[in-house]
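Hi F.,

I've been meaning to write this up properly since the lab meeting, where we talked about keeping a consistent format for the predictions we share between groups. The idea is simple: the sequence comes first, exactly as it goes in, then the structure tokens exactly as they come out, then a line or two of notes. No screenshots and no reformatting. I'm using this chain as the first example so we have something concrete to point to.
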Amino acid sequence: MSEVTFGMAVLLSVGLLAAKICQLIRLPSVTGFILAGLLLGPSFLGFVSMESVGYQLEHFTQIALMLIAFGIGEHIELRRLGAVARDVGYISVVQAVATFVCVFGGTFVTAWLVAGPDADVIEYLVLALLLGAIAVATAPAALLHIVKETGARGPVTSTLMAVVAVDDGLAVMIFGLAVSLSHQLVRPETASVLQAVYGCVSEIVFSLAIGVVTGLLIDFVLNKLQNRGEMLTGGLALLLLCGETTRMLHLSPLLAGMAAGFTIINREERDVRLFRAINAFEPPIYVLFFTLAGVHLELSALKLAGWVGMVYFFTRIIGKYFGTWLGGVMSGAPPVVRKFLGLALIPQAGVAIGLVMLVSSDPSLAQWSVMITPVVLAGVVLSELCGPVLVRYTIDRAGEGQAAQVHPDCGDRGEQACSVWLRSPEGIKLQPWEHAPLHPATTPTGVVAFGAYHFATVRGLARIATILAHHYHGVPMSVRVLKPADQNTLGREDMASLFLPEEDEVTSLGYPMKRELVFDTPASGLVSAVEYNDAHAVILGYPVGRNLRSFHQVLDTVASNILCPLIAVRFIGTFRTDRILVPFLASHELAELLPLLEAMALTAQPRITFFHLLPFDSPPEEIRQCEDDLQEWLAANFFEIQTSYKVEAVESSLERILHEVRRHDIIIMAASRRYGLERMFFGSLANSVVVNCQKPVMVVYTPTGPADAVDGKETEKSDTGA
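Output, unedited:
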């Protein structure tokens, strides 16, 4: 492949798809990105290679590394680190030393045993020194991505991010000392160890100094800018300038980026606007970064590494884990830090590869890069595949990740299992009726018909129909539509038994129930039953499960052939009506919903929140006018009912409704007036809510367009009784 733009599209799309698959099985997204790159790279499909695309996208890697380093600095806030500063110091130093010692000892002994007693000890001593120093480095990119993905906050996360930041500084220092010592062993006349120490310290100090200056410049610029786009442009320009400056001076861009983030977050003003702006900018950069990292990985390195590679991988894990445990014991860290933090330090990637490149570019040590490169790459492959999972495990065990919102009815079920279970017959339930029985009218007029089909939803439909019948002074009527072929196979007793579940529910509410058995197609049978029984409203239940396309066809047919409102109910989990959310886009929808809302309000006595969603660019004066209009409408129609209202200009109506419904039991909203191709093209907010919401939804279809309810306006506010 030679087309870079097409290569970017493939990397982004396949990386995102792999991440979503990993999320389904509770693996970090970064694992999916890396696996996608590995699949597309030379180890498998060979669809993307570093020669054709990878090297031309290297600038994305540099940008990503700078953003990653800057993001790590945000997590090193002294105000929050005060309680764990002692832990960070002990753990950082002890685990770095322990990792170096374990890898040095393990690889030296292994290489010497494999080569035999006649081998040159100096040769394998240099190999072990360099491998031990490289092993200290971690993978801050993977760690930061998982922390952001899980929304982790807490002492373990703060300790982890600070340890990672310090660890890279220690890795640079230890590597410099190891290189100097290796030079002494290979060529005793080279620079002294003292000079090597000075070189390492100066690299760290100057890198940090450039980062601090960059942070102060960014803070100064942010104070002069108000537009978020300008903040992102100016801040990103300074960050990239910082990164390129440190590279030209052969310093550490990672340390400089961390120092810049550290400086901004610890200023007394604590301006985090740039961090938030970058958060919205970086996702595609991250996907490219990690998928390219996967393309870099070649499984052939596992074969080339041999025994030394295997020992390198396992001794590094031992050093990281037990070094962290020992450092935690020495500092008095909490048990959860001692037990699990070491697992989160297993990932290794860019920094280690960069150190390998330094070895290969050193004329005195280039001959060792032939062995070091496959060993480190093998360790990177294995640690990048299993490391992110261990980071996620650490955060989960610490209880600091913001787990996805799981429905309270689901118990211990995971997010995906919960979503499926809530829509299954076992997950659909009906809250017991806790109000006084309803009293039917002395002379009922008309019916409220409901289509009874599935045992899991029929009692809920019967309850809604009874509540509406009470409002209309009618009676509920159960309509069962069977295939014409069933007419000769069912006896009279069988037909009567079909209506027992809904009749039991209606009777418990204090009402009688009419029955209607029709042998026809679903849509035609329902329409005919409504026409012959003077129906005030028709209530249908969505099919149990997720296949909704055929049901929408039935809905459209019935709604277009009856003269009364049609209410479609999607049952999910437990059907409750204590807290009702009423989202709407236009004021005329309120008139369409009014009969159902009045019926619910007078019988179930719920708390109703009216939520008016305006276009995101609506001016403040329009929002205030909508609030006034809605408040006036509520005072006229729900004077004695507990209500609240909100009016918001939103970027995504669906996302905002799904977020708001978490505090409610059920959604009641008006259906789209579009049908067929028009609906396919323009979409339907109500249908999208039905598909994506994890709470029951009632959608009202009206046969005609009623008069506007709030003079063509749209309104809401927050928590005000009316």
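Notes:
The CA atoms of residues 313 and 379 lie 5 Å apart.
The domain at 430-701 is CATH 3.40.50.12370 (Rossmann fold).

If this format works for you, I'll send the rest the same way.

G.
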